[in-house]
Amino acid sequence: MVLALLCGTAHAQGYEATPVKRAYAYGVNDAGVMVGFDPYADPPSAFAIGTRHSVKLLGLAGTGVVGFAGSIHEDVIVGQCMSGNNPVPCSWNGTRTATALALPDGYTAGQANRISADGRIAGSANVTLASALVPVVWTDGVPSILPVPPGTFQGSAAGTNRLGQVVGNIDQGSGWHAVVWQGDAVTSLPGGEVPGTGTIAGATNASGTIVGAAVDTATGTTHAVAWQDGSMIRLPELAPGSSYAVDINEAGDIVGYSGGHGVLWHDGEVIDLDAFLPDALKRQGYVLDQANGISNTGFISAEAFRPGESLPVAIRLTPSTAERAGRR
Asked: How far is CA 46 from CA 27, 65, 98, 293, in A?
């Protein structure tokens, strides 16, 4: 069953967009600390940057090489680091130097995609860089490979919630399809049953709402969706074209992109976050084109690009005091 949200564009007030640095921005925590990847650093490195201080995150002890920081919850950051020639899942727990997460026996590479409010870490592992991925969840640092249906080529875990669920994606040879794990049971999410279509799950919250995209595999077009109570809901879009729901907080606010702009879906309406980009950046040709993370306090991590450049400006969107109070 597919439910379409037929809502217009919301004209919300109360966000201040602050350029942080030229870098890729991914997750953000309740204190507004953003994490991401700075390819211009020497060596290219992960970073964490708060409202007052910026920290260059280091790789595994003795290596000096780091991949990226993709997700943060409270003071714990997860992502990927280099160990020799292998990218491995790693975490920063209140320190600048990364610690490698344990891999399942026989596996040499992997990635930590997200740390959730329940403390679990979702990601993937592979035996070698050339081999297929398996979905993995770390609980108290211990990795567990999630079961997949027969015929599955590869899979990856994207997030967890306090209901004990894990969301992610599997590939059975015809493209990625969104699934949810509950214990040892794995269930396909609706929306990818028709040949030539697929689904991707990216995040979930404590209410069990899952966000991601429905995919037209022939054209590559994606449409932002949410799954609630077994139904797929297509989210409203700013304009025709691709859209994608990337993250969701506990209040049900969703961020992603639509119509070439970063957006926030709030109470069933879509808010164009490019409207909050400072005029100085707009005059230089920048467009806030993607939002990648949202905290429970309403902070949003986003990116602004301009034509002809390959690296974005990381943007922090800070909600007004009144809006933050309303989220408590």
From this structure: 12, 10, 10, 16
For the ranges 50-59, 129-138, 242-251, 319-328, which has the lowest average pLDDT? 319-328
Closest CA to 88 of 55, 121, 118: 121
CA-closest candidate to residue 292, choices 327, 272, 263: 263
Q: Which two tokens stand for residue 88?
A: 């491995």
- Cis preceding-peptide flag for 39 (omega within 30 of 0): no
30 vs 50, more confident:
30
Full residue range of the structural domain in which residue 96 is found: 2-326
* Coil, helix or strand at residue 4: strand
Question: Average pLDDT of 32-47?
Answer: 88
CATH of the domain at 305: 2.130.10.150
Tokens of 233: 């809901």
Cα radius of gyration rounded to whole Å, the chain: 19
Residues 262 and 14: their CA atoms lie apart, in Å, by 16
